[in-house]
Specification:
This protein has eight helices and no strands. By secondary structure, it is mainly α. It has one domain (2-225).
Length: 226
Amino acid sequence: MSVLRQAARVAWKDLRIELRSREILYTMAFFAGLLVVVYAFAFPRDERAVRGAAPGMLWVAIAFAGTIGLGRAFDRERENDTMRALLLAPVPRLAVFLGKAISIALLVLAVAAVCTPLLVLFLGAPLFTHPGPLVLVILLGVIGFSVVGSVFAATLLKVRSRDVLLPVILYPLLIPLFVAGTKTTMALISTPADFHAVWYWIQFLGIYDAVFLVLSVWTFESLVIE
C-alpha cells in the first residue's frame, strides 16, 4: 500500500503539471480528432465499410496520439532534469514507474474518450452498441500501452533520436495488443455481436498486461540507470 500511495503522488505530480498547461492533452486530443476528420473524408459512409474500418481507426488514433503523449511526458523530465531527482528520491523505483504509467494511462484514456464519440458522430460507427465491453477493452489496451511505453520512453530519455526510435522499438511489442483491441472491437460491432470472440480477446489482453507489467517492473530500474 505504501508503494501505491507513492505511485499516486508521482502520478498526481504529473497530472497537476498537465492540468496547469494542458499542453500534452490538447496536443493528443487535437491529433486524434484530426485523424477522425481525415477518416470521415477518406472513407465512404457505407455501413458495411464503416463496421469493417472503425475498429482499426479507433486503435490507430489511440496508438498515434498515445505515442505523442509518451514522448512529450518524458521530455519534461529531460528538460528539467527531474528524472534524476525522481530516481534519487527516497521512494522505490517501482513507485516512480507506476506513477508515470498511471499518469500516461489517464491521458490516453482521455483521448480515447474524445475520439470514440467523434467516430460515432462523423462516421456513424456503432461503437456504443455494447459500451461495457468496449470500455473494458479500451481500459486494458491503454494499461498495456502505458506500461510498455513508459519503460521504453524512460530508457530513451537521453537519446537524441528518441522521437524516431520510440515507435520503432515500441510498436513491434504492441502489435499483439493492437490486434487484440481491434479484433475485440470488431466482434462487438458485428451483427450479431460475437461475445465468444470478445471474451477470448479480453482474456488475451488481461494476460498480456499482466506479463508485461511483471517484465516492466523487473527491468525498469536497470534500463533507466544504464
